[in-house]
Design brief:
Elements lengths: L2 H21 L17 E13 L4 E12 L3 E7 L5 E8 L2 E6 L4 E4 L2 H9 L8 H4 L10 E5 L5 E6 L2 E9 L2 E11 L2 E9 L3
Antiparallel strand pairs: 1-2, 1-11, 2-3, 3-4, 4-5, 5-6, 7-8, 8-9, 9-10, 10-11
Length: 195
């Protein structure tokens, strides 16, 4: 495989990883720290995903995101730093769809299945819809800590070590997530624009 093809494959994998991490969501809507009065949450901001391999190799991708979630339907757009679309994810009523900028489309019955299909291994990231709102997901959380206002600050849930900070009325403006799995460490950082 030549260097250009290897780089494209690594970029595609990282984009899929980012989509998987950001789109892993299929939980019922509960009241959160904030958000729009109807339970909707719209956020824009920047993301960065880094994968550290056991052999010392490191891969990274970053860019912008637009998250629109009304509790029934989630749309997530990812763009590179220059604003070109990397991918769009849509999750609604028993279907999750990933559309990449190259025109390829993957579908699955839910976001967790889409993650496994896109990456080839299961990564349970179903809590992100809750974490974006500044609350713990339904699954048990380990080592939870709260900030001075009683909001979640750090915890381990679904295999991810999560840190939430810089809250505004809609939820945390900074989400840092890290996961260690066989042969690699995945780090994700989301910085949301203030609402």
């Amino acid at each position: 495989m030549n260097a250009i093809a290897a780089r494209r494959r690594a970029t595609a994998w990282l984009a899929a990883a980012c989509v998987a991490v950001l789109a892993g969501c299929a939980t019922p809507r509960l009241p959160g720290v904030g958000g729009e009065g109807d339970g909707s949450l719209s956020r824009t901001g920047r993301f960065a995903v880094r994968v550290d391999e056991a052999d010392g190799r490191q891969q990274a991708v970053q860019g912008g995101f637009a998250w629109r979630d009304d509790g029934r339907r989630l749309t997530l757009d990812l763009a590179n730093p220059l604003g070109s679309t990397l991918a769009r994810v849509e999750v609604a009523d028993g279907a999750a769809t990933l559309r990449r900028s190259d025109g390829s489309v993957e579908q699955a019955p839910d976001a967790d299945s889409l993650v496994e299909q896109a990456l080839g291994s299961p990564i349970p990231v179903s809590g992100l819809r809750d974490w974006m709102r500044g609350r713990l997901a339904a699954a048990p959380a380990a080592e939870p800590s709260r900030d001075a206002q009683g909001r979640p600050a750090a915890f381990v849930q679904g295999g991810w070590a999560v840190r939430l900070s810089r809250y505004d009325a809609a939820g945390p403006l900074l989400l840092s997530m890290e996961r260690q799995e066989a042969g690699r460490r995945i780090s994700v950082r989301l910085v949301a624009d203030p609402s």
